[in-house]
């Protein structure tokens, strides 16, 4: 009888271990783990200066301040709680800033001229090493494509640069919304979204602090948010100055 009871106890223990292991390994379907990850991402976003009112849950992503996108599965930087004292940006510089490869998705080839014009704005900033290049290959840093489901008055969306030195890897353009805008305004939308991919936040975000030596407000900044179809169409003097500070030659 004792041996039988021992066997039953061992079998029960093994069963419990197997169930425990299967739950631990199946992270993707564990609601508790998913909730914890979402909370970490939300805490990181708020640390960047965004408020609850600016954060929208959009399925797999959080969309912030209208067009800045954070994936819920993103790797949250371990040092995100440290104070950031620079304006316009999230604290993470793109490592290969002199060769940022842009892939044009077939959905947006009709706007290739606007894309090239936007790239030219960033590539010609004085005293900056920023250089976007168009690639047709399978290896790229940023994919730009159409997404007409963004909705509302949002012209486009983009991921911010990441803590591992990579550019935000996707730009979405609401082509249906901006197709009747002027060429300059369509270019403005793309230029603005590329700015997010290299770490720039919205200049008119009230909680944002200063890039060293580039303080004050800037009504002419192309990186001002909430100006779809009506904002500045060229990088302002301060936009260029901030770019040169963050990405100097």
From TrEMBL:
<keyword id="KW-0732">Signal</keyword>
<dbReference type="InterPro" id="IPR024653">
    <property type="entry name" value="Peptidase_M10/M27/M57"/>
</dbReference>
<protein>
    <recommendedName>
        <fullName>Dual-action HEIGH metallo-peptidase</fullName>
    </recommendedName>
</protein>
<feature type="signal peptide">
    <location>
        <begin position="1"/>
        <end position="22"/>
    </location>
</feature>
<dbReference type="Pfam" id="PF12388">
    <property type="entry name" value="Peptidase_M57"/>
</dbReference>
<dbReference type="InterPro" id="IPR024079">
    <property type="entry name" value="MetalloPept_cat_dom_sf"/>
</dbReference>
